[in-house]
């Protein structure tokens, strides 16, 4: 007889290789990473009466019909298979029988399922695709969503050996029709519940956003036509207002044309929505949900985001994914990169890759408009390997005056007003933009000058050269040191 271990076999792979221990009277299952003490009893030798006992002990009744037992042979071993029940589970026909429990063959390290089931559904013969072996029963999943007229079993060695074990009786027709009616009622009730949930979702989001324009626009889209290219009116103006909350800069003309359509599809891409050329009530609702998440990322704390997600029934993984989508749209690429990584949601790896930016051209990538007057030049030479890039920040107090990027070249220069400056350096390979630099995967330092000072004075009319990690030293030059700089202070 079987122990309480349930194992599922795929019909396409009837010979399943398991790690198992076998002696003369018992078979145990042992996991690939388990010790021998963890083995579970799967099968124990019994006598021919086991199958009959299982039938007598079973109290579950099958669907009304004519039942019988089948005698099948597999490698000269007899199997008495008796019908127990059948039903539709998750849209597929499931047939349960007894009679396998004491005789599962074991050949060359493989368990063999000797008996499979088939059924006639709406005049068509359908086969079983998998079987779940329990302690007393075998439950077959068949490739049909219809209730059967007849159920058969057969030996895996001979599919033509089908034997009838259940047939719908004439008296059962009304019962079957009643079951179908009941099933339809359940499905309709589930659909109503889903519709209720959707209504609750839009209600929660509209309450969270607290914007009357969106309430009226949703009602108009629910009862009217979708907004498409060329649509005009107050609903379009509300949609343009919504799109602008995602950082777009659309004029509130009330006309939905190419500019508005491009903004819509860019937001859809950013949040992994289906791309459409229209906005109906469903698309508008998705935009509202994503706007609630987009707004919540303005807070340094994730509590607002978690609060919204919990209300909407969004899982933790999807929460982090959607939050990362919002961060990427705001240009916070490294924060988005980490968010996608921690989410492990759907295409997170692809989205991580899109957060890594292409290296900018070698040279100055930012200059503060208040510091454009010249008077002195600073040339920077940085010894590094080609696969590593460097970012040089030149600061006046806490103000970023200039930023130099050294990627394909190891040197660059900048013209600056005379003054006292602090110089910071960062190196790495994955570039996330000026704000995020190389993320916390990079290495960051503040340069130290005379007497360990963090500032250096550049005088009018002078040209300076700063060498970092250089193997060659200029004559009459002063030593420059460095101090570790935390990423969040860089």
Give the tags.
single chain; 490 residues; alpha+beta; 10-stranded antiparallel β-sheet; 28 strands; 29% helix; elongated; disordered N terminus
Explain this structure to me?
Helices cover 29% and strands 32% of the residues. The protein is built from ten helices and 28 strands. It has helices spanning 50-57, 172-209, 212-223, 234-245, 258-270, 281-296, 303-312, 316-329, 333-343, 348-355; strands at residues 7-10, 15-17, 20-22, 26-29, 40-44, 66-67, 69-74, 77-89, 92-98, 106-107, 110-112, 115-121, 124-133, 138-142, 150-155, 158-167, 227-228, 278-279, 363-367, 376-382, 389-396, 399-406, 411-416, 419-428, 443-448, 456-458, 463-468, 481-484. The longest helix has 38 residues, at 172-209.
Short recap of the structure:
By secondary structure, this protein is an alpha+beta fold. The chain has helices at residues 50-57, 172-209, 212-223, 234-245, 258-270, 281-296, 303-312, 316-329, 333-343, 348-355; strands at 7-10, 15-17, 20-22, 26-29, 40-44, 66-67, 69-74, 77-89, 92-98, 106-107, 110-112, 115-121, 124-133, 138-142, 150-155, 158-167, 227-228, 278-279, 363-367, 376-382, 389-396, 399-406, 411-416, 419-428, 443-448, 456-458, 463-468, 481-484.
* Number of DSSP-assigned strands: 28
Shape: elongated
First CA to last CA: what distance? Answer: 69 Å
Fraction of residues in β-strands: 25-35%
The Cα radius of gyration reads 35 Å
**Count of DSSP helices?**
10
Main β sheet profile:
10 strands, antiparallel
Return residue spans where pLDDT drops below 50 for at least 5 consecutive residues.
1-7, 11-36, 42-62
Helical content class = 25-40%
User: Helices and strands: which structural class?
Assistant: alpha+beta
